[in-house]
Amino acid sequence: MLTQTKSYATLKDHAKRLGDIKLADLIYDAARARQLVFASDDLEVDIARQHIDMAALEALLGLAEDANIAEKRDAMFAGEAINKSENRPVVHAALRSPETRASTRYQKMMTFAEHTRKAGAYDDIINIGIGGSDLGPAMVAMALAPFASGARVHYVSNVDPSHLHDVLAGCAAPRSLVIVTSKTFTTAETMRNASLAKSWLEAGGGDSNKQMAAVTAAANKAADWGIDPAQIFDFEAGVGGRYSLWSAVGLPVMLAIGADQFATFLQGGASMDVHFKTAPLAENIPVLLGLLRVWNRNFLGYATHGIMPYDQRLARVPAWAQQLEMESNGKSVSRDGDALDYATAPVIWGEAGTGCQHSFFQALHQGRDIVPLDIIFPRHPVGLHLADAWPDNSWQDSHQVLVVNALAQAEALALGRENTEQPHKSFAGGRPSTVMSWDQTTPFALGRLLALYEHVTIVSGFLWDVNSFDQWGVELGKEMATSFEAHLKAGTIPDGMSPTAANLLARLAAQE
């Protein structure tokens, strides 16, 4: 465990020492700055605004050695059952390999997607899923909107009937394809919405036998539910939901952008896999960022971490990363079931810039809590088709304004500006951030970025000694909801329910 490693006490000492050194003083060290910028192709990761010096970084790399990060990484890529609680391998990275793209599974999905796109039988495609069956593909679809063509693709996740209703209200049943995405094909919210969508198709003149598809690791259950086996696209049980967008869960994305662009997206993810597997730890971007997660959380005491994409099409990346990191590493016991005596995953949150600057950045600059940030952006825009016929560079100039705002925020947060005469205008600085930039947000670049965040999550989980691949914390609430629903229908109150919950359940029953 983290607190039992050889490096832990040394890192505590470094944190105490650095507490007496201003971040601004570190930043202006030119030699340090050169050592803290890392690259993988056109992706540049600048950690010079993190509150760390080379001695502390060396100690963090010692922590990586203590935690056997390289060995655990290699075990994952070798297909060992590192998901101990479920006795499963972790195989999502393999989905990005050329071998997988040649597989029968992938070829079936690709053939269906390309046939559907060319046939033009659908105006709307509705993906019904929740959690990893929604957050990943919905985020990618938004990010790669400039590369999409053909039918509109909608994502429905909430059991709140208004979510499905408002999507279906804008669609014509005979011209719609419904995809039900559920790893187990038993997810309560998804299956309820799937039943409603099936009824809507049939009532509106559609054919649910032809106009429904399934994405699942439980193909037999999907067939039993009524999906044509020819339109069931399966994936392995060893693919966790929050890591699954590379699998058949990406079907709605492939339907939107086409098989060639989807393959390029996978290639981008695979490029980060190669970097993660082969780069020395001291130059390994996922390892370094994973170490910084632990440094900021456990040694500097920062409880949250913000992800601020300065790219409006990446606006859903924070929500995706929130599930990725918090569901993976929000644990209080080790992989062996021992209680941890230290905190794990920070609260992950964020919004797109520049809007975020006019919302909560006030608190980030002048509040008492320090929030480390990832400030991420493409250096050049993509998909500004109106600009092609524009008489000047106004569209491209707007992107330059976006980028300089991102850089200005990173500098202002780190450096601050003292104003003793007007304290309300004083900025303390000392707010750390990592600045990540790349050329353009293409399918390749997006795949690389998302794989990077996956590997950061896995590395930090290894350091915290938690199982980053299960999510037992979601079970209790689901079990209670199932029980409460049954009691609501029966007009009874379950044993052990709190008085206020019992009162509310009784009021709901009275409205039935």
Strand content: 5-15%
Shape: globular
Query: Main β-sheet, in a few words?
Result: 6 strands, mixed
Number of discrete helical segments: 20
Work out the helicity level: 40-55%
Q: What is the structural class?
A: alpha/beta
The CATH topology assignment of the largest domain is: Rossmann fold
Tell me, rounded to a whole number, the average pLDDT.
96
Quaternary status? single chain
Spans with pLDDT under 50 lasting ≥5 residues? none
CATH class type of the largest domain: Alpha Beta
Give the strand order, joined by hyphens, for the main sheet.
Answer: 1-2-11-10-8-9
Description:
The chain has helices at residues 8-18, 23-27, 30-35, 54-66, 69-77, 98-101, 104-119, 135-143, 161-168, 188-203, 219-225, 251-257, 259-278, 285-299, 317-329, 361-366, 394-415, 443-464, 475-490, 499-511; strands at residues 37-40, 43-46, 124-128, 152-156, 176-181, 212-216, 232-234, 304-309, 347-349, 373-378, 433-438. It is an alpha/beta fold. It folds into three domains: 2-81 and 266-384 and 392-416 and 424-470, Rossmann fold (3-Layer(aba) Sandwich), CATH 3.40.50; 97-257, Rossmann fold, CATH 3.40.50.10490; 474-511. The strands form two sheets. It has a six-stranded mixed sheet with strand order 1-2-11-10-8-9, with helices on both faces. The chain has a five-stranded parallel sheet with strand order 4-3-5-6-7, with helices on both faces. Strand 6 (212-216), helix 11 (219-225) and strand 7 form a beta-alpha-beta unit. Helix 7 (104-119) packs across helix 12 and helix 14 (285-299) crosses helix 18 (443-464). The chain is globular and about 70 Å long.
